[in-house]
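Predict the structure of MFS family permease.
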Amino acid sequence: MQTNPNLAAQAMPDWPAIAAVVLGVTAFSVAQGVTYPLISLVLEARGVSPTLIGVNAFGFALGLAAATLMIGRLTQRFRAQHLIVAGLIGCSVCLATFAAFSSMPVWFLARFVLGFCASVIFMLSEAWLNVACPDRLRGRVSGIYGAAVCAGFAAGPLAIPLFGTAGGFGFALTAVYLALVAFATGLLMVQTRTVPEPSSTKDVFIFFRHAPMLVAMVFAFGFADIAAISAMPVYFVKSGHSEAFAALSVTVLALPTALAQPFIGYALDRLSRHAVAVGTAAVAAGGYIALPFLDQPVPILVAFGLIGAASFSLYTCALTMLGERFRGSMLVAGSAAYALTYAVGSGAGSSLTGLVMGVVGLDAGPLMVGAALAVFTGFFALSGRRRG
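Done. Here is the predicted structure for MFS family permease.
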């Protein structure tokens, strides 16, 4: 009698799959941490206008959207592990393209492919992580995954001062690194026992209908996360702090976020997952609301670090609860729905915060984000009571 290996993982974790997923997504996070600032700096040094730099960056967003819509068809035709390795190789080729060519149309196409491959890696990695992990360990494994993503994004920009922006050396070295990780990931995947089940575009929209609060959690994360990264450094400078302080705030945002995720994961396995999610949302809301009332650097950085850790913890909670509530094809569909929701939430967070600061007043930016998170916290707490 044969047994379903995905069901077997509910008793014993599939450690090779978990290791392959974490290794692959960490490598891509490092690469994305390099490319986001490095491409902008290189294009700016070439005299490219800010408008064209923004248009070039839009290619990445188009690639993310295309992958989300095609993930069902891809998983029906190819095995998930092959798609993840192909995504890593595709990212490596794109980075090598940035090093070898200087044409703007070529870079736009490379950023589109990079966004497509990135989205495939993240969606399938999150689905596979939940398939490979039993529920008793799901929070801790999700916490390690979240810490790896945060650490990769934080470490990526360090390549810029080490290797500079000229000559494409940073792109080339990162491309080689990704190719090596793709090879190592492929070796690990030979030993795996589990695999995500194929999904479809229809399943994505079914997921939206069946898990509105999980989708809302991801939206709140995207809204708060991008507001912190894009709008708050501007807020600090305009409120009288130095540009060096604004740059330091981004580092302070990233490091506690990475360090906190394993502890959040442990709490998710030991406490009520709904209560942990409500608590993290409340801390993020309180941090934003407190910012305008703080004027000393240390308290501001402490509050900002709490904002980063708490807002990303919302995503760790959503990822854990996805695996707790759903099985089979809905895991890939849920990951795709998360990707779409994060894109919408992050777009709303950056644009609305900047608009409110410009129209209403500087302090209105963090207060608006904090108020929105507070309203979400209340709705989420009430939804948990109704379900209970």
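The chain has a mean pLDDT of 84.
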